[in-house]
Amino acid sequence: MSDGPNVNLYGQTSANDGMSDHNARTFAMIQQLRGVSTATICKVVKCTVAGEVGPIGRVDVLPLVDLVDGAGQTSKHVNVLNLPYLRMQGGSKAIIMDPKPGDLALVVFADRDISAVKKNKKQSPPGSRRRFNMADGM
Predict the structure, then answer these.
(1) Helical H runs in the chain?
(2) Which of 63, 7, 71, 57 is nearest to 38 (CA)?
(3) Which parts of 34-124 fold into alpha helices (H)?
(4) Domain check: are 26 and 47 in the same one?
(5) Radius of gyration (Cα) for the chain, nearest Å?
(6) 70 and 12: one domain?
(7) DSSP code of residue 4
(8) What total of structural domains would you count in the chain?
(9) Is the Cα dihedral 36, 41, 47, 53 positive or negative?
(10) I need a surface site. Which of 18, 57, 80, 132 has the fewest CB within 10 A?
(11) Residue 15 has what pLDDT?
(12) DSSP state for residue 135 in the 8-state scheme
């Protein structure tokens, strides 16, 4: 199995992955799961709200954990653009602590495309069949 104690430092398979149908299927599932974005730490690069009290803005962020390929080579992420951020709010009251460039942020990624909700600001169907994608972060 790929993520067990015999994990290779280079390449994506271990010596056991081809030893049985079970191991081969497990490897295939792990490969699919590796394409799922759930949450990561990012640096805020840009924020549309510049200190004024107003509607919630959007941020551009840079994921800080580099990508690693099967040969162990790293590459940097590109900025993820136009993500909404959250405020603590109850009715007409809110704690406003808008992010600033350089802040670190935990970004979570929705399980479906949220572009239609971002655009309409109301309940909407998914904008596409996209799933677990960094473009759907907040």
Answers:
(1) 21-33, 115-120
(2) 63
(3) 115-120
(4) no
(5) 19
(6) no
(7) S
(8) 2
(9) positive
(10) 18
(11) 64
(12) G
Question: Please, which residues bridge with residue 43 across strands?
Answer: 62, 104
125-133 long-range contacts, CB within 8 A, separation 24+: 131/36, 132/35, 132/36, 132/37, 132/38, 133/37, 133/109
Structural domain boundaries enclosing 11 = 1-34
Q: Are 1 and 17 in contact (CB under 8 A)?
A: yes
Query: pLDDT tens digits for 78-101?
Result: 999 999 998 888 888 888 888 999
Residue 65 gets which letter from DSSP? S
CA angle centred on 74, ends 70 and 76, rounded to 5°: 130
- Cβ neighbors of 23 (< 8 A, separation 6 or more) are 1, 16, 17
59-69: pLDDT as tens digits: 999 999 998 88
Does residue 48 share a domain with residue 29?
no
Edge-to-edge order in the sheet of strand 58-63 = 80-84, 58-63, 39-47, 104-108
